[in-house]
Automatic annotation (TrEMBL):
Key words, A-Z: Isomerase, Pyruvate
Protein name: Maleylpyruvate isomerase family mycothiol-dependent enzyme
SUPFAM superfamilies, per database record: DinB/YfiT-like putative metalloenzymes
All copies of domain Mycothiol-dependent maleylpyruvate isomerase metal-binding, residue ranges: 12-99
InterPro entries per the UniProt record, alphabetical: DinB/YfiT-like (IPR034660), Maleyloyr_isom (IPR017517), MDMPI_metal-binding (IPR024344)
Domain of life: Bacteria
Length: 215
């Protein structure tokens, strides 16, 4: 997928996410997201912070000293104090721009909007389209850069020793017992979300369920 193709997915995905948020009630805005410790409002606020240059990133670090996860969370919580309509407008304002946060590429920006859109929609029982081809590209990016082990803003799941096979697009990666399912569900898994585990099949999926089961 070329850089132009990546941005051609990001923009409509941002619009869809903003449209979904615009229709939420106050109670839904305060609902827990798939990100542990984050509300839907926090995630929406984070999605308005996708174009930080070096100066803004350094300022966030000075305001919230600590690890990367702490800086990201507290920056989102600061922004989340804004009214819901301003957060929606902030996401809409990113449409058409190819700026991204310092230190990342368009592929990380793609992964963010795909995954965080589901962080908002899934716990609310709402549907938000995720194009399978784009989900596969993001899944490959996450996996090839070390997956949840190096993507520090994502939870780490014990995913070593499995082969991931998308059933709705031509993508597979890894070696071992197979975990099969839609590319969107595989992307959620690779970014530390177990919410799509019931959509996955194969010997590897059964093994992973046992690994994740409470002791």
């Amino acid at each position: 997928m070329s850089d132009d193709d990546v941005w051609a997915v990001i923009d409509p995905q941002r619009r869809r996410t903003a449209d979904l948020l615009a229709g939420l009630s106050g109670e839904q805005w305060d609902h827990p997201s798939l990100c542990e410790g984050w509300t839907v409002r926090d995630v929406a606020a984070h999605l308005t912070l996708q174009q930080l240059g070096l100066g803004a990133a350094l300022l966030s670090g000075l305001r919230h000293p600590g690890g990367l996860n702490h800086v990201i969370l507290e920056s989102a919580r600061d922004r989340a104090r804004r009214p819901a309509d301003r957060l929606v407008a902030g996401i809409r304002a990113t449409v058409g721009s190819r700026r991204h946060n310092v230190g990342v590429t368009s592929l990380e920006t793609l992964t963010d909007i795909l995954v965080h859109g589901q962080d908002i929609a899934v716990p609310l029982g709402l549907e938000l389209e995720m194009p399978p081809e784009a989900a596969a590209v993001a899944a490959e990016r996450v996996r090839s850069t070390g997956g949840t082990r190096t993507a520090r803003v994502f939870r780490h799941l014990p995913l070593e020793g499995f082969r991931f096979v998308a059933t709705d697009v031509s993508w597979a990666a890894g070696e071992g017992p197979e975990i099969r399912g839609p590319a969107a569900a595989l992307l959620l898994l690779l970014t530390g979300r177990g919410a799509g585990l019931d959509r996955l099949t194969g010997d590897g999926a059964e093994m992973l369920r046992r690994r994740l089961a409470p002791a």
